[in-house]
Amino acid sequence: MTRDLLGRHRNVLPDWLALYYDDPLEITHGEGRHVWDAEGNKYLDFFGGILTTMTAHALPEVTKAVSEQAGRIIHSSTLYLNRPMVELAERVAQLSGIPDARVFFTTSGTEANDTALMLATTYRRSNQILAMRNSYHGRSFSTVGITGNSGWSPTSLSPLQTLYVHGGVRTRGPYAALSDEEFTAACVVDLKDLLGHGRPPAALIAEPVQGVGGFTSPPDGLYAAFREVLAERGILWITDEVQTGWGRTGDHFWGWQAHARNGPPDILTFAKGIGNGMSVGGVVARAEIMNCLDANSISTFGGTQVTMTAALANLTYLLEHDLQGNARRVGGLLIERLRSATAQLPGVREVRGRGLMIGIELVRPGTDEADPQGAAAVLEAARAGGLLLGKGGGHDTSALRIAPPLTLTVAEAEEGAALLEQALRSTR
Predict the structure, then answer these.
(1) In b/e form, how buried is each residue of 43-54, taking b as 16+ CB within 10 angstroms?
(2) Distance from the first to the final alpha carbon of the chain
(3) Which residues pair with 164 in a beta bridge?
(4) In a 3-state reduction of DSSP, which class is residue 154?
(5) Which residue of 3, 63, 106, 225 lies most exposed, with the fewest beta carbons within 10 A?
(6) No. of H helices and E strands in the chain?
(7) Helical segments of 276-371, H only
(8) Residue 380 pLDDT exceeds 80
(9) Left, alpha or beta for 290 (phi > 0: left; psi -120 to 50: alpha)?
(10) How many CA atoms lie within 13 A of 353 on its CB side?
C-alpha cells in the first residue's frame, strides 16, 4: 500500500518535494508523543512534524475545540468580525513583549516572514535586508531571497537586496575560536563595517536559534549588541520565532528574550507550534509599523475561526501546564544524556541546543567535514528502532534535529536517548 502511494506521489507531486527515508513513511495517526504508520509500526516522535505538533498528537483539548468550532462555522475571512481571532490576537500581543502591539494572522511561517519583510521595507522605504548566514526563513520568492542557506535557496533572483551578517553559528566560521565575549564583539565590528559601505537597510531578520541550519545559535546577548548598532541608524529588528517561540527553548518563552538587554524586537513572526498542526502563522509589530501600509489588504485563510480556536485551546493548555518549564527540565536531562552517550563516539562533533530544541552535528570520523550520508544513515537506523528524528545544517554541517512535543516525559526522553545512542553506535 505504501509503495503504491509513493508511486502516485511521484506521478503528481514535484520532484523537489523532499521525502525522508529510502522507503518513505506514511503516518496515519498519533497520540501523545507517538505516531503509527500504515503498517501499524509505532514510533516515538522526536520531530513533531517539523516542530509543529508542539504539545501532543491528538491533544483532547485541541481536537474537542476544533470539532465544536467546525460544527458551528469554519471560515468567513477577515472581512467579518471574528471573535476567536480577536481573542487570540489579544493574548499573543500581550505575550509578545512588544509595546502597543498589533497582530496579523497568516497561514504559515513563510507567509508571516513575507509579511514582515513587506512591513519593514515599506516602513523604512528601503529594499535592503540584513540576514544571518546559515539562516532559513521560508519558501516564497522574498523569503528564499534572504535565506542564507544554499541548500534551501533555489534561485538568486529576489525583490530584495540582501547582505549577510556573521554570528548565527557559534562553533564554525572565522570567529569560532574566540570567547563568547570576543565573538560578539567581532560580529558587532563586522556589522558596523558592513553598514558603512551602503545605504541603511530596512531591517535585520534573524532566528534566535537557526532551525533548518541545524539548531545553531550565537552567544546570548548578540542580538542585543546588534540592536544598539541598528537602533542608531533606525534599522528594524525582526525576530523569526517560527521554531523558537512558545517556550520550546525552555529558558525563555521567545528566543529573542536571550537577547533582551536593549528591549524587544520591532517585529516578531511566529507559526508552527501555536496551531499544534493547524495552519497558523502571524506577525506582531508596533502599531506604527503594522499600520504603515496605505493600501487595502485582507487574509482569506489567515485567522479562520477553526484555526484560531485550535490555537487558543493549544496556547491555554501550554500555559496552564507550564510546558515551557517542562521543556527546560526534560530538555536539560535529555541534552546531558545525549552528551554523555556520544562523548566517545567518532564523528559526533557537537551536541548543542536548549530546552527541547537539540542538535547533534555529525562529521566524517577523523575530520571536521560534513557527513550528510552519515546523518541520513542515523535517521534510517533510528526509524528501524522506533524513533523519528529530523536533520538539517548549512553548507558545512550535518545535524540531527531533535524537537519532540513539549509534553515529553522523563521516561520518554530516556527511551529516545537510548534509541538514538543505539542508532549512532550502529552507524558511526
Answers:
(1) bbbbbbbbbbbb
(2) 33
(3) 131
(4) coil
(5) 3
(6) 13, 15
(7) 287-290, 305-320, 323-342
(8) yes
(9) alpha
(10) 34
